[in-house]
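Chapter review: from sequence to fold.
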Amino acid sequence: MTSSEFPHLSAAPEQATAPASPVGYVEDVAPGRGTLPPRAWYAASDAASLSLNGSWRFRLSPTADAEDDAFAAPGYDAEDWSRVTVPGHWVLQGHGAPIYTNHLYPFPVDPPRVPTENPTGDHLRVFDLPADWPDPAAGGGAVLRFDGVESCARVWLNGTDLGEFKGARLPHEFTVGHLLKPSGNVLAVRVHQWSAGSYLEDQDQWWLPGVFRDVTLLHRPAGAVRDFFVHASYDHTTGEGTLRVDSDVEGRVTVAELGVDVATGEPVTVPVRPWTAETPVLYDGVLATEGERVPLRVGFRTVELADGLIKVNGEAVLFKGVNRHEWHPRKGRALDPETMREDVLLMKRHNINAVRTSHYPPHPAFLDLCDEYGLWVIDECDLETHGFVEQDWRDNPVDDDRWTPALLDRAARMVERDKNHPSVVVWSLGNEAGTGRGLTAMAEWIRDRDPSRLVHYEGDIDSRDTDMYSRMYASHAEVESIGRGLDGGTRKRRRLPFVLCEYGHAMGNGPGGLADYQRIFEAHDRLQGGFVWEWIDHGIQDERHGYAYGGDFGEELHDGNFVCDGLVFPDRAPSPGLVEYKKVIEPVRIEGSGADGTVRITNAHDFADLSALAFGWSYQLDGETVGAGTLPVPPLAAGESAEVKLPQPPADPRGAEGCWTVRAVLAADTAWAPKGHEVAWAQLPVTERTVPRVAATAGPVHRDDVITLGPGVFDARTGALRTVGGVEVTGLGLDVWRAPTDNDEGASWQDGLRYGPAWRTHGLHRMRHRLDAVEAGDNTLTVRTRVAPAARETGLVTVYRWTSDGTRLKLTVSVVPEGDWSLPLPRLGVRFGLAGSADRVRWFGGGPGEAYPDSRTAAVLGRWESTVDALQTPYVRPQENGARADVRWAEIGGLRIEGDPEFWFTARRWTSEQLDAATHRTDLVPGHTVWVNLDHGQHGIGSQSCGPGPLPQYVLRARPAQFSFVFTKTG
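The token string follows.
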């Protein structure tokens, strides 16, 4: 095939001629030489193919020109070379080391020049053609396809130089049929870590060179399919779809289920069921030319900008999305089909309906899965030049005409590869690449080639080239203002829909504030949702650290654990943030009054009715289920609501705390989850809890060096609690410190208050406890203290008042701030130690997972049980975690603790100070004490690691407070 065989790509960039220097192509701004024009990708056809994945010979050189090209010649002896697996990255296979930077280029910025020290990997693969490979005499040829190589590759086959290419996350093909022989074919690929293309690929991820996507040999029979474009629109007013398949090679298109059998290029209109992310209906078809049959999966849908909104099939959509980098903790960006499927299934099971492919086109098989299971996709071009922000965007390639052919090449390779996916509804020009003429050229080319989709680019602040106003990390208040149309800007921008392309930075514990964002999205039509940053922590599995992050490989420049900011951990275990997000974006709203037994069900889908769901109720008394049944709910259409009456609650002679739980689950197995999978739920309180009361009938008894009060034994001199009913207790006292979360620490570039650094500056991690008095009254033991940091006049006057009825021991804590406490507290409560043998934990409160003031939507009120170790959330960088919210009582280590009011409960085998000092999971070594925190208050989480901090209502102000706990020995 030659480029002349692709006339529709005449607007695409032409291929460059070979540079004079043997390695001059590395610094050439042109996209490459010798490659075929881009075309539609498809997984398989009836034409023969041969995967060249597997074990390759490998040699690493320190510079681009350290070795000549003799290795590409047949007969070259590479027996002493190492081996690497393709797809893969050599730095994850024992050759060199990965580098992580957020936006800083890890080399001097002098475009298009790159360092002399340029790790270069020579790859060799010798292969034979299968015995059934078609005979060249029968006509046809062959194409060699690379789906992804970072960052620049030069390719030889049987000693013939095929050319070179850049564009790491994009496919490139070469014509090779005339070079093949039955056996002993020598494929040689030289890959350079740094190239001119690296300036376009500064995408907040590990720099990982290698052949990291599939390498495939494709037979191209005479008359084979070349490029084709499936146009499948849907008219929501008639219920009909129109199909037209444009093909470079004439053929026929058949869709048996629809009775379609037409020539390519010929439109046909038939009644169809439309494709949406909620109802991903695909029709199996075939494109048949003289030489090849290609399976089609056709989804009918129409995307448009209408009435100032992004609409699909005539309905506005609300994106409940996530940004997804490709990642595997051992293989990096070399993902296998099972891992991609796992991602899609996890997203669907957590109510996510959209993916932004940050910040490059994903492996094309991922989009097949999005088509199949149903996810809206913003397909983003392989482009980011963020590092130029350090020089005020001077010399930015997107505003330099020399680079425009490379930009257009990247746009064309994305669009042509992915244009037949119904899941792709928006093309994105790239990410954080500033502004410039090159981006405008990309937008114009994309609109001309595919006017059926919308165009996105967050950096286009005036929306000159785009179809939506897009921002990242805007505060709740600003998003609200935009929703109300009060944001200003150009007239065009004010008439466009708004998308928050990144928000809810999921770094470590968090993000907080997701529910507040969602309420704002749903209140204003213009706000069409957002995409949480991001899907997965990019931790590298590492024997030293558990998971490694930036700086763990000796990088001279790095951005630490900023690469670990996902809703799932590196092993794809869901984080509490993902569980919270699932609850926040659930597609059914269940509201009502538990007292009058009426529940209002609202279908919050954009398209699907509720016929796929079954509803049920259960009734809890003090957290124990005492009744359950089904709840008849009509199959409400999208947007409809209905009020449903709950049955009479079961009798309660005890006066316990009563609560309805209403759940919506899948009524039958689906492709993405089994029958019974929970989609949405709500709890409706009926009766309030009875607060524990302890009559102060016992009095303190002073004997030798101890004071006894009911089951409690205290140190007579200090008033410190020693035991409760024989259970040893150590170090009980006021605690305000928590190991700052990534969101507490904030980002170094942010203006304003960053809580973690401010807490340290104020000394809240080193509070001193001064004993002022120990007072034994008739029926009370009072311990007066002042808790304050060194070098500061501020303090917390803290009084511990102990009473007992002879069996139970009650502690009432009173806290009064002194001085200027403008700084919020991390936490407010008491901490104490129990013997290390304490392990099992039972509690009545929020669970089963952790929760904090602005990330507690997913906490289910009930009775829960766990081990101390299982209470911990294993963030890649250790930090505050594991709090359970709204706890009425908890049992641990032989003690039962009841709270008034409800409290936050935490238990761990290390102190907050030890947790704070740890930088990796492996730094946390269990001690001989279990440390328990009973907190009256916790500071919110927010998302200030790259966004706004906690909203004011979640800030823990230092104010006078009083709270109590009742201790009882169990067993």
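Two observations follow directly from the output. DSSP finds eleven helices and 61 strands in the chain. The CA atoms of residues 515 and 657 lie 26 Å apart.
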